[in-house]
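Usage

Read records sequentially. Each one opens with the input sequence:
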Amino acid sequence: MKYRQPTKAIVTDAGFASRFLPITKTIPKAMLPLGNRPIMQFIVEECAAAGIEEIIIVATPEGKSIYEDYFNNSVNHIRKQLHAQGKDDRYAPIQAVLDFPKIVVIEQDPSYPYGNGSPIASARKFISDDEAFVAIYSDDVVFGSSDVKTLIDAYAQHPDASAIIIAQEMPREVLNKYGVIRLADEAAMTLQNIVEKPAIEDAPSNLTSYGRYLLTPEVFQYLNPTATGLDGELWTVDAITKMVEAGGKVYVEKTRGKWMTTGDPKNYCMTQLEYTLDNEDFADDVRALVANHN
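and closes with the structure output:
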């Protein structure tokens, strides 16, 4: 079946983020900042730039109200104060947030097991049976390009796809830390399966998978509470693999940008530093601080 081009994205931030405690007991992990914007805003901006019209954020019960406030609260008292001070330009970043495409925030279905597939499954009712959609883990940011646009463009070229996944080439010495792609057909760039954290000598390629997918409603056949895998969790990768096993075509696209994860304190810090050095007007001060640090 040929599905309609994606106009919706599901973005997930429904985990406990235990590696960031205690701050994440109050603040959702994807609300941690890169510069003066939260990580989630980078994801939303990527979707908006690619033409996505509706974004479904799947959050924890505690995070739902925080996301709703961030993307909908016009803070008129701040706007009025800035206007009185002749600083209307400082309200522009807030207006940009209010002007994003439609954003709906939902909670993950509490009846679903733990796992990165459960937030996607929780948003099932927002996806029509005849449309493809984009799914994004909010841990992952991409600098320099839009993976969402790459996925949408690729689907226009491969309307027979059951799914399309994004990959980044990584040095062989770190492949044991990632999910590594095994291709069924290197010329066609179709997926056979993903090997989680293989021994370096056993890695089937240098292509690593991360949280940018174009999916079709076929995936929901396999994202259900009875389809748990490793550690009793519901995994998106397992569902994608089952689509391949059932005869579906899953294509692999290489990112045109640079993927970085913010999923743990070390990598979050590295991503923050990368963003600062490439974008902030005080980047040279940071370089000098690091150079002079003993």
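Summary fields computed downstream for this record:
- The longest strand covers residues 161-169.
- The mean pLDDT is 93.
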